Amino acid sequence: MVDLSRKFDCLVIGGGNAALCAAISARRSGASVLVLEGAPKFYRGGNTRHTRNMRCAHDAATDILTGPYTEQEFWEDLQLVTEGQTDEELARHMIRESKDILGWVVEQGVRWQPSLGGTLSLGRTNSFFLGGGRAMLNALYLTAERLGVDILYDAEVLDLDIDNGMFLSADLKQGDGRVTVRAATLVAAAGGFEANIEWLKQYWGEAADNFLIRGTPYNRGSILKMLLNKGVQEVGDPTQCHAVAIDARAPKFDGGIITRHDSVVFGIVVNKHGLRFYDEGEDIWPKRYAIWGRLVAAQPDQIAYIVFDASVRNSFMPTLFPPIEAGSIAELAGKFELDAAVLEKTIAEFNAAVRPGTFDHTILDDCRTEGLTPPKTHWAQRIETPPYYAYPVRPGITFTYLGTRVNKQARMLMKDGKPAANMFAAGEIMAGNVLGKGYAAGIGMTIGSVFGRIAGREAAQNARN
Fold this sequence. Notes:
By secondary structure, this protein is an alpha+beta fold. The protein has helices at residues 17-28, 71-82, 88-107, 132-147, 197-204, 222-229, 285-288, 292-297, 329-335, 340-353, 443-464; strands at residues 7-13, 33-36, 53-55, 112-113, 126-129, 150-152, 157-163, 166-174, 177-188, 212-213, 234-235, 241-247, 268-271, 304-309, 324-326, 354-355, 368-369, 388-400, 403-404, 411-413, 419-425.
């Protein structure tokens, strides 16, 4: 049993990668630590359970990485996907710190494996967790427990007592009552508000009813809202988020990574009217996969269809749901209640515009369309080999970018611009500092690990002082 009558040095709210990195870092710095995970034990870990990899800068190839990925290249990739909407000082600080994270997480029990294949193209840039995100999470929990970190599950926080930027205590639901937990410092690592459909609808309107939530149903943004209401400065556009195209047959919540589609570059994407609406070959997939959720969200009824043929059926990583198959384009259209004549025309025009080249999905190849709007800039191949296939897709929201503003010490900043006295943040709840928009594969875990480690270390030092 956890003794809630004592005053802890550090209270960590959240139970995913960022929270555990903070808890371990604080404990290794000598602090007493209590972790409050709002989910039941089986569902602990927030979105970390569904992850596969992390993007870190490194100067040379390793056993699991095929070559160097310099700080400058990482920065250029981040600038590209965010279109410059990032805090450069914080982002460069995170990238610099990420070089140490590859070894640090191994010291906490996490193991790496060689990169996966398919359309990921991440063998040089991203490290993959052996056993996936849940295995990574279990390793961190085991280390935290061995170090003496106290952990409570089903720990719903009802209120935070904050006085002029100073955290004093948290009220916790216990059975039918509530208990007050005191701590010298607070680390908020409780995720975004993506599972709160009503909050999403404030910015997206009724379209949000058609969004699917890839991650945990427990990230409802309650801690974020409390902090913002109590004087913490916000950062980020509330409509920006990590949103990918996922299978329309996926569950409303917690479908995870196995519902994501990596097949876009091998075919075309049409809306409910049978029309293409964006360049499927704009850039390497890990730099573009996270724009497709927002693209689909902007289409009528928030639905789209990835269409391809038998020639590429086995070229990408399979998902939980098999594609819908048909012997002709007209038959395929009928299975989705699309206008067959329109879909046939769309594909005929696409095929006529394809200019042959040497296909290679790992590089920006020379297979393109000509005279077509929108174009397909790379990886354009004629769709002409039956049977034909399609996946129905909807916007799959992973996490939102509205969050708490922080400095390089992961300390929250108040609305007046001053640093909070004893409050820190890590992970998705502050990701908007780095991600103003867009996404690059694995960077969410980078943000969580780097700022979690910093937040825990700084919180422990703050508690000592």
